Amino acid sequence: MTETTAVALREDFLTRLDEAMRGLPHGIATDIRGGIVEELQGLDAEATAVRIAQLGDPDAIVREAQAELPAVSPLAVPTTAPAPSPSAPGPAPTSTRGFAIAAALTLSFGGIVVPIVGWFVGAVLVSLSALWKTGEKVVAIVVPFVAGGLSILVISTMVTISAWESSGSSSGTGTPRPADNPLLPAWYDMIWVGLTGIGILLIPLSGLWLLWRLRGRAAR
């Protein structure tokens, strides 16, 4: 046999093999064909014929590959469905934006709707929310009272000094006594203005400040 005959034998066998492997997955068919090409490469006509006879009929090769297909094919379907993964727990109520907004509004206006008690409820809700830092909560709850207390202290000090000066001067010059001093009612009015400012201005502003700090923050 000549070399041309060896090539013809090889090509004829590969053609029949390709025809038989049409039903196999592409990757498996490519591996089988590549392995056979390597075995037949470089053989003369006689050795090619012997090796082809050893390999057997292409249909038999395909049946053998199909018998092993369930074990090696990536397309094999599992017999049991995977267990459903547990659903992730939702965020805690105190971590939601709705809770934080309600807390800030209660802190701002709860004391107006229900005096004293409403503000305390708002302070508790603000302290429970997870969307503000501890420092922000302290500022919103404590600072209004500190600022109002300082203003009252300053006003009270000024009233005391004014009354003392009026009392000291009344003994020698005939200036009106503290009870008769027309300036004192104005100072007392200022004290009440300071007290009113805490409830009407500083506390509502603290809740609105918390709402401003809440912008752009997502639930944790």
Description:
The protein is mainly α. The protein contains eight helices and no strands. The protein has helices at residues 3-20, 26-40, 45-55, 58-72, 97-113, 117-128, 134-173, 184-213. α1 (3-20) packs parallel to α3 and α5 runs antiparallel to α8. It is rod-shaped. The model is unreliable at 71-78 and 174-180 (pLDDT under 50).
Largest sheet: none
Secondary-structure element series: HHHHHHHH
Beta-strand residue fraction: under 5%
Proportion in helices: over 70%
Number of strands: 0
Number of contiguous helices: 8
Determine the N-to-C terminus distance. 82 Å
Uncertain segments are 71-78, 174-180
- Whole-number radius of gyration? 47 Å
Summarize the model shown.
This protein has 220 residues and is mostly helical.
Descriptors:
single chain, 220 residues, mainly alpha, 8 helices
Task: Explain the layout of strands and helices.
Blueprint: H1 3-20, H2 26-40, H3 45-55, H4 58-72, H5 97-113, H6 117-128, H7 134-173, H8 184-213
Helix pairs in contact: 1-2, 1-3, 1-4, 5-6, 5-8, 7-8
